[in-house]
Q: What sequence folds into this?
């Protein structure tokens, strides 16, 4: 199942991690949340290649002097660096889509395909911003209904989470239309 692209990538402004699209009467809203991606895949490859060239040049220099044991450790370092950059790039491809349609609030999570869907009845869904018990810890944005709770926006900072909580409350339970 393809992860539906409700909001095109172009909807994101520079440095923005939340994009939303609602119809005029707030009957349908789509919110796309993505992690802050300061290093692109291409950037990761370039960083790896640069560090690889420098490290292997140094290791080959030692190898040519007869210190062959440096080469396997340099290779192991490069393997660990590649794994770290790959896992970091994989994490930045995570997406969360919050769909508010009719009488349902759905949370979809995944990368290229949707791997998890959680649905709540819109009339019973409540948005809760749980402050951390200790200073310095992040708050948690929860959508609750019938004893179940799902955290959304775990990749957001506190200011973005506050703004999203306010917007979600307005979108899930819009006030009466002005007369």
A:
């Amino acid at each position: 199942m393809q992860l539906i692209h409700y909001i095109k990538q172009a909807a994101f402004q520079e440095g923005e991690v939340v994009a939303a699209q609602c119809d005029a009467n707030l009957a349908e809203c789509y919110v796309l949340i993505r992690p802050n991606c300061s290093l692109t895949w291409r950037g990761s490859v370039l960083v790896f290649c640069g560090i690889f060239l420098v490290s292997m040049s140094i290791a080959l220099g030692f190898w040519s002097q007869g210190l062959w044991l440096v080469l396997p450790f340099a290779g192991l370092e490069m393997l660990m660096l590649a794994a770290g950059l790959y896992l970091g790039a994989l994490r930045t491809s995570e997406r969360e889509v919050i769909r508010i349609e009719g009488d349902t609030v759905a949370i979809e999570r995944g990368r290229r395909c949707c791997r998890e869907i959680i649905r709540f009845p819109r009339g019973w869904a409540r948005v809760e911003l749980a402050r951390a018990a200790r200073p310095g810890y992040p708050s948690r944005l929860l959508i609750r209904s019938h004893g179940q709770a799902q955290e959304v926006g775990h990749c957001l900072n506190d200011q973005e989470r506050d703004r999203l909580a306010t917007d979600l409350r307005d979108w899930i339970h819009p006030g009466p239309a002005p007369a």
About this structure: The longest strand covers residues 114-121.
